[in-house]
């Protein structure tokens, strides 16, 4: 049973054979989040998995802009969306999750711990937001361990989300047309790829081996043998470090 914030996502869950329940919730409003968790408790009596993927700051980041030039309002809003929403949700949801052992929290971020540690991520605000989510997973893992539950930070690669497809003026069916504008988009993946990796992680009876770690969709795919819709296993963060950041010509061969 999935409680979701997007109606079209709930429809996709239904189409895949599951049951999706769309709920409109402002995760910056503690009362709304508390009410959501109370509803889950009343209707299901349990919470096995929390995927904390709340964001919404895509249009707030000013790329490669120092803090004294970046909009303070946008930057602080970005931090609230990335950090406050996750903490508020965990505050109310985890008391339900820890009722049963083997509960899993997945903190979704952008970039692995190893990559973010050595690279500047767009702006001070964006950098701090994405670092914080990784640290949050580590802290939550520590607090959840006595209850037999765990937390993991997971990052997708260069994802072909609705926003990214719109930016490049393409659809999923013709996404390769975007390579004329951005050749490195060849390493991109669909949102289903990280979803399949997280589903496999959730179904792993030994998921606790990932406790507090930072992992990418590509790494999960290799461990669990899952594939993107086209049958590939894009390893975006290895590609970004070894090809894109290294200034080499775009070539995803051997990376998907």
UniProtKB/TrEMBL annotation:
SUPFAM superfamilies: NAD(P)-binding Rossmann-fold domains
Coiled-coil region(s): none
Gene3D superfamilies assigned to the protein according to its UniProt record, in alphabetical order: NAD(P)-binding Rossmann-like Domain (3.40.50.720)
Organism superkingdom: Bacteria
InterPro entries for this protein: NAD(P)-bd_dom_sf (IPR036291), SDR_fam (IPR002347)
Signal peptide: none
Name by which UniProt lists this protein: SDR family oxidoreductase
Native organism taxonomy: Bacteria, Bacillati, Bacillota, Bacilli, Bacillales
């Amino acid at each position: 049973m999935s409680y979701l914030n997007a109606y079209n996502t709930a429809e996709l869950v239904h189409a895949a054979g599951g049951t999706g329940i769309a709920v409109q919730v402002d995760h910056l409003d503690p009362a709304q989040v508390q009410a959501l968790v109370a509803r889950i408790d009343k209707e299901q009596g349990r919470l096995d998995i929390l995927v904390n993927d709340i964001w919404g700051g895509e249009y707030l980041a000013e790329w490669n802009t120092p803090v004294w030039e970046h909009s303070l309002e946008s930057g602080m809003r970005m931090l609230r969306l990335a950090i406050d929403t996750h903490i508020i949700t965990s505050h109310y949801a985890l008391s339900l999750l820890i009722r049963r052992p083997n509960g899993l929290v997945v903190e979704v971020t952008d970039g692995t711990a190893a990559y973010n540690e050595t690279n500047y991520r767009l702006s001070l605000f964006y950098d701090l937001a994405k670092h914080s989510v990784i640290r949050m997973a580590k802290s939550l893992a520590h607090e959840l361990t006595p209850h037999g539950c765990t937390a993991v930070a997971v990052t997708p690669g260069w994802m072909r989300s609705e926003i990214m497809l719109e930016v490049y003026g393409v659809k999923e069916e013709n996404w390769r047309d975007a390579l004329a504008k951005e050749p490195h988009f060849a390493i991109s993946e669909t949102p289903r790829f990280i979803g399949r990796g997280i589903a496999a992680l959730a179904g792993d009876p030994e998921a606790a081996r990932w406790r507090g770690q930072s992992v990418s969709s590509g790494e999960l795919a290799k461990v669990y043998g899952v594939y993107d819709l086209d049958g590939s296993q894009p390893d975006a963060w290895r590609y970004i470090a070894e090809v894109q950041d290294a200034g080499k010509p775009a070539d995803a061969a051997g990376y998907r």
